[in-house]
Amino acid sequence: MEHTVHKSFGKFLVVWFGQLISMIGIGLTAFSLGVYAFEKTNTATSVALITLFTFLPNILLRPIGGVLADRFDRRTMMIIGDLGSAAGLVFILTIMLTGDIQLWHIYVGVAFSSVFSALQSPAYKASATDLLDKDQFSKGSGLVQLAESSKFLFSPIIAGILLSITTIKVILVINIATFLIAILAVLVIRKSMKVEREEKEDQNWMTDIQEGWREVVTNKGVLLLVIIISLVTFYLGFLETLIGPMLLSFTDAKTLGTFQSVSAIGMLISSLCIGIFTMTKKYASVLVMGLIMCGLSFSLLGVSTNIYFIIFAGFLFLSSLPFVNMSADVLVRNNIANEKQGRVWGIIGILSQLGFIIAYSLAGFLADHVFNPLMMEGGALASSVGQIIGTGPGRGIALLFIIAGLFVILIAIITSRLKMIKTLEQSSDISSPPDVGGLAHD
């Protein structure tokens, strides 16, 4: 395997910028395909299935991607991952240009892209640690969160405008171009970086995966944190999948894009603060407070149909999320050795994001067949809960949001009382490994 010899925040910024542009493109496509599916079927299930097929292969194959990130040049793995992701979109675009596209064509295309994203993501996480010094970890994490926020900040409002003046085909072309920019950024730093190769005894992939598993489960604090994040992602999965169908039930795609972009200013502000001001302690406390704010604002999203109130709740939610991600990222980053990062992040990726997979699988069914019927006129809860949050299309999803937010708050309270989480912070303060890697929502 190869490791970089010299740290360079400047080279990290080059890679980060490429990923920022790529994230904007991914956000354009995700928003547009979701709107396309909902307008074609008028069901939350079709939107949920696109999200599921976008996410599931990525997570299931992440351990293999992690092993490859440890065995081969991490920058090469990023390039291969971005090329494959672009190829999946080329498939969807080709079908749209040559015939009548069906939803299953979209499922296949996004699933193909997701397979290659599983190669890119662990390599990107591990290479970030190659490029950053330990005291730059929180700053780097903040910038990564900023790139992530671009999917919500810039993409929805741009996609909403583009959909009103052009077609989804143009948006797919734009996303493909952004992948090429991300590849170019990696090629730029690849030529200028010196690397050293660490010789190791050949062993099969399963052995590497098992080593990554042992590295996670033997650190009880890290394992517990991963379990907590997985529980939280279960509830957040409902929000990510169903916020579009809820809003589209009483507004249009342009308003949905405006909501997502304006409320994402909260994520932008928080990510900038984290990126500018270096944090060195109290990550566990920040994690708990971030979870409480996420849960509270999550519930507020469901209590009203006033778009301005919903934007306010979305602002609070997305401004809290970077603090949760950064805290979890650094707590794990400071307790995992760099040479094992690729395989460890592969294992952590699949464990911490299992909640999303389950939520994506259940969201459409729960919305269309359980919660929405309860809140329709004449539904079982229309005369009780409906008197508070309203009845009609989408209000069942609102009820689901309220319940999920309350459970996130409960998880935060439990987390605040867990000594093992505090131990992660203490061990990183006392004796951190010389080179360590990161955790964040992908």
UniProtKB/TrEMBL annotation:
Bilayer-crossing residues are: 12-38, 44-64, 76-97, 171-189, 221-238, 258-277, 284-301, 307-332, 344-367, 396-414
Domain of life according to the entry: Bacteria
Indicate whether NAD appears among the record's keywords. Answer: no
- UniProt xrefs under Pfam families: MFS_1
Asked whether the UniProt record includes Nucleotide-binding among its keywords, one would answer no
Which InterPro entries does UniProt cross-reference here? Answer: MFS (IPR011701), MFS_dom (IPR020846), MFS_trans_sf (IPR036259)
Q: Which compartment or compartments is the protein found in? A: Cell membrane
Question: What region holds the Major facilitator superfamily (MFS) profile domain?
Answer: 11-423
UniProt keyword annotations, A-Z: Cell membrane, Membrane, Transmembrane, Transmembrane helix, Transport
Q: What is this protein called?
A: MFS transporter
